[in-house]
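Re-run with default settings, no changes from the original entry. Doing this only to confirm the output is reproducible before filing.
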Amino acid sequence: MLNEAAKLLGISLRETEDELTRDMLASTAVVIAAVNGFNNDTPTELTAADLQDVYSKMIGNDAKTLISMVEAQNKFGKLCAEVKSWVIDLEALRGDKAQAQAA
């Protein structure tokens, strides 16, 4: 009798854990539609305002960040100019070769 009661209590425990886990996972899944775009669809294309809205909601709900914040910069490095001049030189060489073959 005691063994059967222990077995039934074990089954009940696992079913309750499954239901609680399912409910917890269902309550954490959130869909936020992008609404700040200009294409007149719902949802619209993703914009910076949409991302800021999601970020604000997550921080407001005490969401934990996975990585440290990196401030964005709108800069071009020296290497970008060097690569550009190298590509232009290759195009000039190719043009000289094409002109020599045409003659």
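Residues 2-28 form the longest helix (27 residues). The chain has a mean pLDDT of 77.
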